[in-house]
Recover the amino acids of this structure.
């Protein structure tokens, strides 16, 4: 259970980072 929770947290963090980068690129393009 502990290992599964850690894996899920890592995935969520990666998604957040990707979204931040996308927003930054969107702002630059605009």
């Amino acid at each position: 259970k502990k290992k599964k929770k850690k894996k899920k947290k890592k995935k969520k963090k990666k998604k957040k980072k990707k979204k931040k980068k996308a927003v930054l690129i969107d702002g630059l393009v605009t």
Observations:
- The longest helix spans residues 2-29.
- The chain has a mean pLDDT of 64.
- Residues 14 and 20 are 10 Å apart (CA to CA).
- The chain is about 95% helix and 0% strand.
